[in-house]
Design a protein that fits this description.
Number of helices: 4
Distance between the termini: 40 Å
Helix content: 25-40%
């Protein structure tokens, strides 16, 4: 009788673990980070969506691909979007498979940010997020779980205007990963 109870508990534990693993993994496919019509006023630039593997990163960025690959980049996406107001947003979402590897990339970028800007409420509950002002916009670097994000907003009058737009992007990705 005691063995039957232990066997039942073991089977239940395995079943719950399998279900959790399936649900966790199913929502973390890189192409699901693609923004189609989820953000009001932002539309994908024609033919800008690229899903890439480590070797494909060389075709997308000018320098630095070796660092991402050395840290264990598994796959990623690049996407360019434009708003109705003609602002631009370039997004990289990269899956590193392990939090530690994504953290290494994030920390490297964080160290390179000379003057971080205050993101205010955009930051929310995200601990690994930092941004810097560029002419007409913002570069944002963020890590959630084992995903690393680079979001570049441009075409704005001020960094504060870009921060307002940035909130929608950060919330979209944070909600996607924490549903």
């Amino acid at each position: 009788n005691k063995n039957m109870v232990l066997l039942f508990i073991l089977q239940l534990t395995i079943s719950v673990s399998v279900l959790f693993a399936k649900s966790f993994n199913s929502r973390l496919r890189v192409h699901e980070f693609r923004i189609t019509n989820q953000l009001k006023d932002w539309k994908e630039t024609k033919d800008s969506f690229i899903e890439f593997n480590p070797k494909g990163l060389y075709d997308i960025i000018d320098g630095g691909a070796d660092e991402y690959i050395a840290q264990g980049l598994k796959r990623g996406i690049y996407q360019s979007l434009k708003s109705k107001e003609k602002f631009r947003c370039d997004v990289f979402v990269e899956d590193f498979g392990k939090e530690k590897k994504a953290a290494t990339i994030f920390n490297s970028k964080k160290e390179s940010v000379y003057e971080p800007i205050n993101l205010g409420k955009v930051k929310g509950n995200i601990k690994n997020i930092i941004a810097e002002e560029i002419i007409g916009g913002i570069n944002l670097y963020m890590r959630i779980n084992y995903f690393y994000f680079e979001i570049v907003l441009s075409g704005f009058e001020t960094a504060n205007d870009a921060i307002t737009a940035l909130e929608d992007f950060v919330n979209f990705y944070n909600n996607l990963l924490n549903k």
